[in-house]
Design goal:
It is a single chain. Helix content is about 70%, strand content about 0%. By secondary structure, it is an all-alpha fold. Helix 4 runs antiparallel to helix 5 and helix 5 runs antiparallel to helix 6.
Length: about 220
């Protein structure tokens, strides 16, 4: 075993390695992101409360189905983003992961607040994707468009370094493509102006993310 290396200027101080410094910085970064995710959720709730509702969508409405299904869809993206932020080796991958996690957590808050303001349960009796005309046909093994399987999520959690970066980018590209398909569904079939406005913002954000994700994947040789 190699003895710890000390410096002449501070022989009594415990040695500090670059690796330890990086781990410490990453821990602080994860804590900051966790706080940001919580703040994003609270801001999302506040945004949802500010949405006026002269007529409330019903339990089987496209708006209610979208809010419920997209909440579940977003929740997986938040987990994926947090994994990338915490464990990614590429700075851009970590940044994109953190941005997706905080942004989509805020949108979850908005959608859950809609449901409460409409007097609806967070989960309804309708099957997933029943609110879209072709929704049930778009399910794959019971999963909504673009969602990762439990096996894929386990693989992402276990991955390290460059492999994790590439796997995250591939999975998130697929996830966003599925999410945009669902968002287009509410844009085509929804009737609540405030929901449509938020949905359009979601679509614009995810389309921008897609360009960045695809460019990063190309840069990393994935």
């Amino acid at each position: 075993m190699t003895a710890p290396v000390t410096t002449d200027s501070a022989p009594d101080e415990a040695p500090v390695t670059d690796d330890g410094g990086r781990r410490s910085a990453r821990r602080y970064g994860v804590l900051a992101l966790t706080v940001a995710v919580v703040v994003g959720l609270l801001l999302g709730y506040a945004g949802g409360l500010l949405t006026p509702s002269l007529t409330r969508p019903g339990d089987s409405s496209a708006e209610a189905g979208f809010a419920r299904d997209m909440t579940s869809h977003h929740a997986q993206a938040v987990e994926m983003g947090l994994i990338a932020f915490q464990k990614g080796s590429d700075p851009e991958v970590r940044q994109v992961g953190g941005d997706i996690a905080t942004g989509q957590q805020g949108e979850i808050g908005t959608m859950q607040t809609w449901l409460r303001s409409w007097g609806l349960d967070p989960t309804g009796s309708e099957p997933a994707m029943a609110w879209m005309p072709d929704g049930r046909e778009s399910l794959r093994d019971g999963l909504m468009p673009g969602m990762a399987t439990p096996q894929e999520m386990a693989q992402l959690r276990a991955a390290q370094g460059h492999d994790l970066d590439v796997l995250f980018l591939r999975m998130m590209i697929k996830h966003h493509l599925g999410g945009i398909h669902m968002i287009q569904g509410i844009l085509d079939h929804g009737g609540d102006d405030d929901v449509l406005k938020v949905a359009q913002t979601m679509k614009n954000t995810q389309q921008t993310d897609l360009v960045n994700l695809q460019n990063a994947l190309k840069r990393l040789g994935g």
